[in-house]
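Notebook, bench 3.
Goal today: get a predicted structure for Aldose 1-epimerase from Sporolactobacillus laevolacticus DSM 442 so we can plan the truncation constructs. The sequence was checked against the plasmid map this morning, with no discrepancies at the termini. Length recorded as 350 residues. Pasting the sequence as submitted so the record is complete.
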Amino acid sequence: MEVSKTEFGLFHNQTIWQYTLANDNGLKLNVMNYGATLTDIEMPDKHGKIAHIVIGSGRFQDYLEEDAYFGATVGRVAGRITAGKFSIDGANYQLPLNDGNNTNHGGPNSFERLIWESHPFKKAEQVGVRFDLFSPDGTNGFPGNLNASVTYSLNQKNEWQLHYEATTDKPTLFNPTNHVYFNLSGELERTVDNHLLQLASHRFGEIHEDGTPTGRLIDITGTPFNFIKSTAIKNGFDSDHPQNKLVTGYDHPFFLDKRGDGPNAILEEPLSGRRVTMSTTNNAVVVYSGNALSDKIIMDGKPLKPHCGITLEAQMMPDAIHHEGFGNIILRPGTMYEADTVYHFECVHD
């Protein structure tokens, strides 16, 4: 197992470093200290052919020009906060609006646009990088001096592990995620239509036209949101269900069942045999099927198109501060926030 470091670019006269985590099975992850961002995953298919299986780029400039959060650590709060307003203990806060009349993914120039301190490490069965960030009190309107960290690691079991920690000196909101877009075919020219998805979730979060949650959890029975059994993503693209038509696919949180010890999500691409299995300590996964991606976005010299990637964003339910039963995302002084998400990669052979 190896962890190596190369110069990736310059940002405000500071060097951006990219770290490569590689195990002995042909699995390789690239992560950079700008946005604590995953830039690439290389993985063999069932025939041993290695390909890039996430949307990313080998050009740092692409990350400055795009705004789709490719592989970024998102925070302080992933997803939309309705009207950018919230209250804690009777104190009212207003965040900048960067998504219509709402705040999305922590507001403008948040975690994904900052340089994180990086600390690579190598252990017997694991290599990784811990990224640290200090977010001052009042950043984008959020209270509290926040110390946050995210650790990326890779082991010999083909597991990409994400471990989050944070502390604050004032009550604040914290609900981070990683915004990786998978395309397990290894070919961005192909959409994720034929990817198969399975979710341990019997309820999904209904959304308004602006993408904010209504607060209702809808039973998946008889809908294109039923992924209890492995199901093709394209079912949602062809659907007349109002929630699918609203976003031309999926851009929805799924409330995880959390029953037993099984995985929370499984994504598979049948032709290549590649499969990723996800488990998380969070109560939700946001599935976004890349509906707004277009040829105006160039990554690594290639124009994108709708549905050429799909996210499995593990987090607490979006806009939880406004909806009872969505989970607690208030972080208080004296408490250590911790969360874990693990993606396991394998190939299914015929």
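The chain has a mean pLDDT of 97. The CA atoms of residues 212 and 279 lie 25 Å apart.
Flagging this for group meeting.
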